[in-house]
Structure to design on (308 residues):
């Protein structure tokens, strides 16, 4: 600590002036904790010394300087017993949103103080434009979420690992169906009209009933699968196991419906392009429809396993 720091901490303005007269550059020196003379004056609650420092041109280099803990003079004011320090708080150069190493702004530091003093200083800081630190708000929110998750995990376990694995599998299937059906919607069976005219760029098989059925069922499959993907996205923000299980069950139903719609779209699309070969078209339809009883038997078997 320099002699100027000691004079500032005692509020001896005359001594400070004399020291600065003999050593004009000593105002920029800091002590072992990184505090400048404005830090020291604020921490010692010496209003006369603070006013003297703020009257000099070099105070601009001190007013937002941080010590080793990242605290500016305004942070120290928030920690002190000073009831008011308007010339510092309302100074146009002071950074009222500065963060220290604990991610706290001056307004954040007021939280543990007594109610009366906190109310007075908070009013003064807010009127000067000070705000709570968003980094601190997010950190507190994340800490609360982590604590809640840990408490629930200690009691009953938040989300079993196998539930996450099942959810990831469902999500992959839903995303694949959405991708395939989206692609099929623009690479339609039969292709597009290339000849110039009013129908150029239109699907060739537009007037066929089988093609129209393909377009409808393909769209249904894409909508169901994208809804399932969205439901998985929403579910990822939940922490309640019961809610997660319910949402995943809903997503699974949507995926099954999307698979059914995709098979129907495949069958109708194949029939549309194979209409001139009725035997082959019927064979494709029979084989495609054979998947429905297979789906039913698999689902029934799964339900029976749950009942055991």
């Amino acid at each position: 600590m320099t002699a100027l720091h000691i004079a500032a901490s005692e509020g001896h303005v005359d001594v400070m002036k004399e020291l600065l007269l003999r050593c004009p550059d000593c105002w920029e020196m800091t002590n072992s904790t990184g505090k400048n003379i404005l830090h020291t004056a604020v921490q010692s609650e010496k209003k006369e010394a603070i006013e003297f420092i703020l009257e000099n041109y070099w105070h601009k280099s001190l007013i937002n300087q941080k010590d080793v803990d990242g605290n500016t003079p305004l942070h120290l004011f928030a920690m002190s017993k000073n009831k008011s320090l308007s010339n510092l708080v309302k100074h146009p150069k002071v950074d009222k949103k500065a963060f220290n190493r604990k991610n706290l702004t001056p307004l954040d530091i007021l939280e543990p103080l007594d109610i009366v003093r906190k109310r007075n200083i908070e009013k003064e800081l807010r009127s000067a434009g000070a705000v709570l630190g968003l980094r601190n708000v997010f950190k507190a929110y994340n800490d609360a979420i982590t604590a809640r998750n840990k408490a629930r995990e200690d009691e009953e376990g938040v989300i079993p690992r196998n539930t996450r694995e099942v959810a990831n599998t469902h999500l992959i299937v839903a995303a694949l169906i959405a991708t395939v059906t989206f692609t099929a919607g623009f690479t339609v069976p039969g292709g597009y009209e290339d000849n110039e005219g009013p129908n150029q760029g239109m699907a060739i098989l537009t007037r066929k009933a089988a093609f129209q059925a393909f377009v409808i069922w393909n769209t249904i499959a894409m909508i169901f699968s994208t809804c399932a993907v969205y439901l998985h996205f929403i579910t990822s923000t939940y922490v309640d196991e019961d809610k997660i299980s319910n949402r995943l069950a809903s997503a699974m139903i949507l995926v099954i419906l999307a698979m059914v719609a995709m098979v129907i779209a495949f069958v109708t699309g194949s029939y549309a392009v194979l209409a001139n070969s009725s035997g082959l078209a019927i064979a494709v339809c029979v084989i495609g429809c054979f998947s429905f009883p297979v789906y039913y038997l698999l689902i029934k078997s799964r339900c029976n396993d749950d009942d055991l």
Remarks:
- The radius of gyration is 36 Å.
- The first helix runs from residue 3 to 10.
